[in-house]
Amino acid sequence: MENLFARFDKHLTKAGYLAMGGQIVDATIVATPKQRNSDAEKADIKAGKVPDEWQKKPAKLRQKDRDARWTVKFLTAKADEEGKTKQRDIAVPAFRYKNHASIDRRHGFIRRWNVTGASAWDGAQLRNVLDKNNTGSTVWADTAYRSKKE
Predict the structure, then answer these.
(1) Across the strands, what pairs with 24?
(2) How many domains would you assign to the chain?
(3) Per-residue CA distances from 124 to 26, 35, 90, 133, 144 (Å)
(4) Would 141 be classed as within a structural domain?
(5) What percent of the chain has pLDDT over 90?
(6) Distance (Å, whole) CA 88 – CA 100
(7) Confidence band, pLDDT 50/70/90 cuts, at residue 6
(8) Strand-strand pairing, 90-104 and 23-31
(9) What is the C-alpha separation between 12 and 19, in angstroms, rounded?
């Protein structure tokens, strides 16, 4: 993957798009089809194993997503006309992926990205998506990327 980034940077630099305006880092949740797995299959997947029944049926194995993970997405209730909230905020479980990207602020190009299961913590992905060739020292990110180390 690093080789791909190096080639991409080389072409952008040659075209005059120097990464020097700082970078914006964010993550987006990407939906996937829900899996209909038994409890035993779920346990095998969590343990990093392929369920025995799937190994016997290669066509079924190709249809199963073993990398996406469950997360909880919080939805905020909307206020009614009088400004009072009638509904409560709700938490919706979702089986998804998460795209983490670093965008060059000046030109708007995605310079680095990483895909994880939706349950991955954004802050742990910061090192994977920061563009070390960007000479601008400023990084714009939401609080999910905050840590003592960074």
Answers:
(1) 103, 140
(2) 1
(3) 12, 26, 26, 20, 9
(4) yes
(5) 1
(6) 30
(7) low
(8) antiparallel
(9) 9
Amino acid of residue 47: A
For 99-142, how does the pLDDT look when each residue is reduced to its tens digit (9 = 90+)? 888 887 777 777 788 888 888 888 788 888 777 776 677 877 77
Which structural domain, as residue segments, surrounds residue 138? 2-32+96-145
The answer to the question of residue 127 being in a domain is yes
6: β partners: none
- Write down the pTM of the prediction: 0.61
Residue 73 lies in a domain: no
Any domain includes 133: yes
Strand partners, 130: none
Measured CA to CA, the distance from residue 30 to residue 114 in angstroms comes to 13
Give the phi and the psi of residue 80 in degrees, each rounded to 5: -80, -175
